[in-house]
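Title: Comparing notes on inverse folding

I've been comparing how different people in this forum approach sequence design from structure. To keep things fair, I'm posting one structure and asking everyone to reply with a full sequence. Here's the target:
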């Protein structure tokens, strides 16, 4: 499976998630700020997350998905980031990311998003990528706008954004 590569200066790498990541992902999903700015999480318990990771079919179905962002030195999961097919959005591709509280404000999320987008446009030949962000999540909004996304609408809680493939312009 082709996995995008993060620049060496991030000190991190992308890899497939596995059940050994459950505790770190549980810490990310249980974080108060994460819960404020994400939709209702289906994986509420450690057992739920472990089960989800054991089953996660997105890699097999589509050849891509959410990647673990592993810190090279500590081996800890700094976050997750990737592209996914959203059935609730007519199977359009969106970008999703969450960072572990201990790895926030280090620029990793911004570089991970940029890397996934570049990979998606070049390797998967995507036409566009969508994103949805909570209206109060200023940091995530900044990351998306910095990476070229344009706001297309809002329902008062979520802002819809879109990025057309810059290689197709």
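Reply #1:
Here's my take.
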């Amino acid at each position: 499976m082709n996995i995008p590569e993060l620049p060496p200066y991030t000190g991190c790498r992308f890899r497939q998630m596995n059940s050994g990541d459950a505790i770190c992902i549980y810490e990310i999903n249980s974080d108060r700020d994460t819960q404020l700015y994400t939709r209702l999480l289906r994986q509420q318990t450690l057992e739920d997350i472990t089960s989800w990771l054991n089953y996660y079919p997105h890699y097999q179905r589509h050849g891509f998905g959410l990647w673990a962002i592993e810190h090279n030195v500590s081996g800890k999961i700094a976050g997750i980031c990737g592209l996914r097919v959203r059935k609730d959005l007519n199977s359009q591709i969106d970008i999703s990311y969450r960072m572990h509280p201990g790895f926030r404000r280090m620029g990793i999320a911004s570089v991970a998003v940029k890397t996934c987008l570049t990979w998606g446009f070049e390797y998967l030949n995507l036409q566009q990528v969508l994103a949805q962000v909570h209206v109060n999540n200023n940091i995530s909004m900044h990351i998306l706008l910095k990476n070229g996304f344009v706001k297309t609408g809002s329902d008062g809680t979520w802002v819809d954004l879109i990025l057309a493939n810059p290689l197709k312009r």
